[in-house]
């Protein structure tokens, strides 16, 4: 499953990556359950993300990745389980309060404001740092101007960091998809998050665009100290970028650990390919595969 081209293009052996596992846990999810009607989307999921790591959350379509992220960020309260962020219980906390604690995210489907410029879309990402008091703004206009300037400085710095200078004034809907994804990442970064959740940031991108965005993700961790949870379907990307991964299948964690070993785990191969194809892949019989992975044929 793992490719090699991407690995060569984006070599990742930083001190931050090497020591990530030894650092404090910043997100701890314990026994998370979440149902939609009769469908159990999450069945007791445990996940820990350490400070400074890029943690991959992978799994086949419908395995529960986005639901898990929605529970972490307060969009869905869990039916059972506990979410701890930076050592505090945030289970069921509203999304805007979770965001204020230093969490930003991008979405699987682009969520940019059409008709607005790249610059204005990025500026929206500062909202968690803005104090919306019109009275204060009226009476303390000098202070308000100073605050506006401070927001602009952060936005300009991120525009430089993400190399978006050339398109800063373009309406966001006329730029290519790869650049729109980059704008979305920039909008998340201007919030100055400590923890960033990226839901398929490379969906629909060609190889060159993927390599570009991968570099920005690594720089966000290495230069800005952001801890990252990455949902991604491209396994070459996962093995190149992530320090650790957890694999979900039907709402359960079926494997976790170092990326190469984890995605080569027979249970993971079976979850992606099905028992028959996985057995062919491994050169063993379906019955042997079932015994090996605990999965039926
Ligand atoms: N709001 C919802 N209402 C009903 N069912 C839902 C809802 N959200 C998710 N589900 C179901 O929960 C299961 C997990 O979905 P989820 O989107 O979390 O999976 P995923 O791993 O993110 O999939 P993908 O890789 O396709 O994005 C699926 O069966 C999905 O249909």
CATH architecture of the largest domain: 3-Layer(aba) Sandwich
- Subunit arrangement of the protein: single chain
CATH C-level label of the largest domain: Alpha Beta
The helix-strand sequence is HHEEEHEEHEHHHHEHEHEEHHHH
Report the helical percentage.
40-55%
CATH topology of the largest domain: Rossmann fold
Distance between the termini: 21 Å
Most strands sheet: 6 strands, mixed
Structural class: alpha/beta
What's the number of extended β-strand segments? 10
Radius of gyration: 21 Å
Q: What value does the average pLDDT take?
A: 84
Flag low-confidence runs. 11-17, 285-297
Shape summary: globular
Tally of individual domains: 3
**Number of helices in the DSSP assignment:** 14
The CATH homologous superfamily of the largest domain is named P-loop containing nucleotide triphosphate hydrolases
Bound molecules: adenosine-5'-triphosphate
How would you describe the overall organization of this protein?
The structure is a single chain. This protein is α/β, with parallel strands linked by helices. The chain folds into 3 domains: 1-102 and 193-264, Rossmann fold (3-Layer(aba) Sandwich); 114-191, no CATH class; 272-297. The protein has helices at 5-9, 15-19, 65-72, 95-100, 118-124, 134-139, 141-161, 177-189, 207-224, 235-241, 259-263, 266-273, 275-282, 286-293, and strands spanning 25-36, 39-50, 54-58, 80-85, 88-89, 103-106, 195-199, 227-231, 244-249, 252-257. It has a 6-stranded mixed sheet with strand order 6-7-8-3-9-10, sandwiched between helices. The protein has a 4-stranded antiparallel sheet with strand order 2-1-4-5, covered by helices on one side. A hairpin with a 2-residue loop joins β9 (244-249) and β10 (252-257). α5 (118-124) packs parallel to α8 (177-189) and α12 crosses α13. It is globular, with a radius of gyration of 21 Å. The structure holds adenosine-5'-triphosphate.
